[in-house]
Structure formats: C-alpha cells, structure tokens
Design goal:
- This protein is α+β, with helices and mostly antiparallel strands and 398 residues long.
- The protein folds into two domains: 82 residues, SH3 type barrels; 284 residues, Fumarylacetoacetase-like, C-terminal domain (Fumarylacetoacetate hydrolase, domain 2).
- 16% of the residues lie in helices and 27% in strands.
- It has nine helices and 26 strands.
- Strands 6, 7, 8, 13, 14, 16, 17 and 22 form an eight-stranded mixed β-sheet that branches.
- The radius of gyration is 21 Å and the shape is globular.
- Bound molecules: manganese (II) ion.
Length: 398
C-alpha cells in the first residue's frame, strides 16, 4: 500500500483509505472545509485549487461539482499525502483535530427519513400494534419514509434540548410538558451531491452519480409525543426538534470494499426498485453508547431496502434532487436483541430497562445523558471508521 508521510499506523481507521470531508472552525475563528487524516485535519480552503470548490468554507460547491471532481480531489489529496516532495507545502495546512470545532459541513436541502429495517419495523409494529400484523401491508412493496425538518439538523457535539409537547397518558389525560420518553434512533444518512432535473426519476443504477457519501445520524425521537400525534399523517413534532449528523462525511469512494448483497426480498420489488444488477447493501457495523456503556451493535448489512432503492423511490413521482438533500435509512436494527438501534426496542417500550456500567438503568433518556454513535466499514487494508455522532440531553426550556 502507498504510505502517507504522516506517521500513521497501517491499520489506522482514519488513514489514506478513509479521507472523509467536513467543515471546521479554527482557533482563529475561520470556517474552513477540511479532510480528516489520522488525528489531524487538512485545511482545504487554504489549500486552494480544485476550481475553488472549498473557498466558501463548506462542502456545498464540492458536492454540486459531481463525481468527476469528487474523484479528482480524492486522487489529488492521496497524492499530496504520499508524495514527500509536497510535504513542505501541505504540512503547514494540517491542524490538530483536537484544536478545531466541527460545524455542519453542508447546507442541508431537503431531509427525508426512511424506515428500511425489517427488524426495526417488525419490533415497532409489535410494540405499537400488539393485536395487528407487525408489518403494514405496504412495507415490503416500498421503502416507507417521511419528510423531516432540514433546518434542525445539527452537527455532532451539539446539545439536544429535551422537547416539550402534547402527549396522552395511559389514563387518557392529554397533557403538555417535557417529553418523558426521549429516545435515539441509530441511522445512516446519505448526502446528495449531483442534482437531478424535475420529472426525471433517478434509477437505482444512477445512485453513485448522485450520492456523494454517507454519515451516521441520530434521529432523536420523543416517543410519547410521536405516539399521540402520528395518526394518520406520520411523524411530526416528536422528531423535528433536532437531528444530529456526524461532522465527517465518508465518500462512497472510500467504501468500495463495503458493498454486500442485501437480504432476499419477497415479494420481488416492482421493476423501478429492482436492484439485482449489483450488490447495493453496505456492510457497516454501528455501535450505540449511552454514558460510555455500549448498549447495541446494529448491523447495516441487514437492512431490507438499500440506499439506491430509497433514492429511486424518493424521485419516482417526479420530485427532483437538490445538492445537499439528505436522506436517512431509518433505525438500523438487526435480528438479535443486542442489535436494536433505539431504546424503544432495546427496552421493549420501557418494560425491560437497559443497565449501564454505573449500575443505573434506563428506559428512556434522562437529562445529562450522552449518546455516541460510531461505526466501522471494511476497507481495502482493514476497517475504516465513520465519523461519530455525539449528543447530550439538556433539560427542557418549557
Ligand atoms: Mn428515524
């Protein structure tokens, strides 16, 4: 393998095989676009070149530039970090990760959240509708989703204020107040770079022409607000108060070793959702930590619907893509108890609290609790890491 002139272990999960992109604020107050290498970030705004796509200090223009530019920039960065002759020019533009603060790396256009895990949908169906079928009749025919609130997507590390809202207590009383059932959803989000024209659905096979990369996402969910409001139009205020996105966007180019076949589908999807031409699943292993205790390890490879199918479905009605569109997978849950991606499932609606390392138990989140999502993917020379999503709950302001 090619060597970086930075001192990195061969198996560093943030090595040359990874090279994710983000935006950070430096100690002197500048906001710059950046690539992460090891425990440092390369200031792409100061680096210049690349048709000035990083001049604004965000990834917006880079995302819009499309796959040719994405490939050229990655190849150029790899060359700069391996060619000793470029070291004197590039090294002064490296900043220690610990000395910069991440900011939201791009302008989020539309935000959609799917519901693509069969294990999650089945568990939630059993909890919310114990007397009915676990899956709704449409579930295996289309990737179910809803439009969320792009304006409240926040970068990892941002505190999350406990939301207030209406809920109905078990005795039928309708109350207003801070949510008592605040939850997480461990998800993987996909970032659209190349836009598409109106009324031209994006086929499954065009996925890599439009989607730049992916990032972990925590879809914070107030279950008590959600359970009361969601009939019949779906999630609303129980979700829209905050959605946390990782600071580092992993380009699809870094995930070439991670593609896997999704689980078998029965019934076969309609032709516009046929993704049998190549493997469109991704072998990502997520970890959910609550106050430092690992409470789950959800496997993304178990997802029923693939990100390419979600993209095809999202545009099949003629809706076009914009640069910065963000769509998330829905809670990632596997078949095992220790693979569930939210507390609702892990605690079976609070009836089986999880035990933390300090001896305390949680049914749902308490003020002060901190949740961290991490993940790894197979790389060409060993696992690569996805950027973490970190968030701490602060008390309600109402
Ligand atoms: Mn969700």
């Amino acid at each position: 393998m090619t060597r970086c002139w930075l001192r990195l272990a061969d198996d560093d999960p943030w090595g040359l095989d990874n090279l994710p992109y983000g935006a950070v604020r430096t100690t002197d107050g500048r906001q710059v676009a950046a690539a992460r290498i090891g425990e440092q970030v390369l200031d792409l705004t100061a680096l210049g070149g690349f048709d000035a796509v990083f001049a604004a200090g965000t990834l917006d223009a880079f995302l819009a530039a499309g796959p040719r530019v994405w490939r050229e920039v990655r190849a150029a960065l790899t060359a700069m970090l391996t060619d000793g002759a470029q070291r004197t020019r590039v090294e002064p533009l490296l900043l220690p990760l610990a000395q910069v603060s991440p900011v939201l790396p791009f302008t989020v256009a539309d935000y959609v959240d799917f519901y693509a895990s069969e294990h999650h949908a089945t568990n939630v169906g059993r909890i919310f509708r114990p007397d009915g079928a676990a899956l709704t009749p449409n579930w295996k025919h289309l990737p179910i989703g809803y439009h969320g609130r792009s304006g409240t997507v926040v970068v990892s590390g941002t505190d999350v204020v406990r939301p207030a809202g209406q809920a109905r207590d078990p005795d039928g009383t309708v109350r207003f107040g801070p949510s008592r059932r605040l939850d997480i959803e461990a998800e993987v989000a996909f970032v659209v770079g190349t836009p598409s024209p109106p009324n031209r659905p994006v086929p499954v096979r065009a996925f890599t022409e439009h989607v730049f990369g992916l990032a972990l996402l925590n879809d914070w969910s107030a279950r008590d607000i959600q359970a009361w409001e969601y009939v019949p139009l779906g999630p609303f205020l129980g979700k829209s108060f905050a959605t946390s996105l990782a600071a580092w966007i992993t380009p699809l180019e870094a995930l070439s070793a991670a593609w896997v076949a999704p689980p078998p589908r029965d019934p076969a999807p309609l032709p516009y959702l046929d993704d049998s031409d190549r493997p469109y699943g991704l072998d990502l292993t997520l970890t959910v930590e609550l106050n430092g205790t690992v409470i789950s390890r959800p496997p993304f490879a178990a997802m029923y619907w693939t990100p390419a199918q979600m993209l095809a479905h999202m545009t099949v009605n003629g809706a076009h893509l914009r640069t910065g569109d963000l769509y998330a997978s829905g809670t990632v849950s596997g078949p095992e108890q220790g693979q569930r991606g939210c507390l609702l499932e892990l605690t079976w609606a609070g009836s089986e609290p999880v035990r933390l390392a300090d001896g305390s138990h949680r049914s749902f989140l308490q003020d002060g609790d901190e949740v961290v999502l991490t993940a790894t993917a197979p790389g060409p020379h060993g696992p690569i890491a996805l950027g973490e999503v970190r968030g701490r709950i602060s008390s309600s302001r109402s």
